[in-house]
Predict the structure.
Amino acid sequence: MSYLIETKNITKRFGGLVAVDKMSFGVKEGEVVAVLGDNGAGKSTLIKMISGVYTADGGSVFYNGSEAIIHTPMDALAMGIETIYQDLALAENLNVYSNIFLGREKTKKKFGIFPVLDHEFMYDESTKILNKLDVKIPSLKNNVRTLSGGQRQAVAISRSIYWNAKVLIMDEPTAALGVAQQKQVLDLVNSLKDHGIAIILISHQMRDVFAVADRIIVMRRGMKVGDLIKKETSTEEVVNLIVGSEMVS
Amino acid sequence: MSDINKKIGFSLKMAFANYGYLFILGFLIIISTILSPVFLTSGNIMNILRQMSITVIIAYGVTMIIISGMIDLSSGSVVALSGVIGTSAFVMTGSPWVGLIVGILVGAGTGLFNGTVITVFNLPPFIVTLAMMTVARGLALLYTGGYPIIDIDAFTTFGKGFFLGIPIPVIIMLLVFVGVVILTKRTRFGRYIFAIGGNEEAAIASGINVKRMKIMVFTLNGALVGLAGVILMSRINSGQPAAGLMYELDAITMAVIGGTSLSGGIGSITGTLVGGLIVGILKNILNLTNVSPYWQQILKGLIILIAVIMDVYTKSMQSSKK
């Protein structure tokens, strides 16, 4: 089966610094690929080029076999590439359903001309998707500020599923969570896999990666230094690749 | 039982934290009524509303700017610039409406400039609007040669006129209020300014065109300042290039007293109107009770301090809630 999302020789420079250097990798439908690497290895820059936050300086992104032009986050979202960022996923000063619809608000016409927000529709739809994914939130009218870290991640994930994510990029989804909440999120990731979603997972937590990933990609100084099948590798091998004490082609 | 008591106590505290400005307004009205027999007469109330109207219109705009995490220091100068050019457009054409529209357009133009420079060069709004503050004042003085534009009697309707016994500036203040409340509460535009002020990165990642939004907020704010400029010149019966001094700070004060957080993402137009009422009533009662203008300045400063302390207090309440 071919890749649903793939990068070929993708490159990003910040002034003289090459943050991502000719990086190629791909993810199939229903596959979880973890991208690992030390701080500054280029993981976040890599996914920001796929999600449209940064524009690549070289190389290209392929979606479903054809080259994808992604210049803005909207381009990526329109293709079904959804990203859940570690800390910048949600606007904490807005309520739950406003966040689920952020940037894609449903409006209705008032007096036949003025588009005003359709709060009722957004509230009802948000309730449906949270129920479907079995996510429990006290009230959708509460500001996200009042939710726990796990609930916030669940809201962010539900949002991307509501918008028909085909590719889901998750940046450190469990970083700020307690143990029980981490498990909730990882269970959610496993259930998304069954829905045929291609998932790119960025994480520092070896345990998470080995719990859900099918393949593990290791980055160092902007380059890919390892592409391993989880079942055939070990924590030790991955750690060695991250810190650079061994090269594997 | 004690649990319920705790809950009620907690929500009262929350109510005070979130709507503290309403308590202050109520307190101020009661005290003023006791201190002065004139205070609650309809003539005095109209007087308060008319005096605050021009600054409140500017404050609506700056509230939206602050909610989206920015600041505007240029409004006082832009009041003068758009006011004198609007007045001069009236003198040239003889039509008050042309004067009004030209004034609004000049204000919107400065806002468009501010917003564009901020987003294109990625500069802090504080600096860009500080520059605009002196540029707009200079342009107003240059345009008029430093002299007021006089003999504009037919232009004074916007500032001095009445409709059904209510001063026209007050009617404009209330009409703009309705429009801006709908805009901030019921439209995408409103949702986006809150999103940008709350978490700009999240707004960008959600596909919101943050740069365009910032330019739009500044342009709208500029249009409101232009409107205020025309009303001011109309009210003082001449195009004064030196008018509007420090209005930007009065407007920011009203927004902050009304619960708008200077760190962005939190605020409301209703709060700003209440903030305007608090400032207006305070000024009024101090005048009615013959308090020296020097003391008035000091008190105004203290009120700002209290408002900011309340803002910080509200935030610590909210973060302790989670």
Remarks:
- The CA atoms of residues 233 and 239 of chain B lie 5 Å apart.
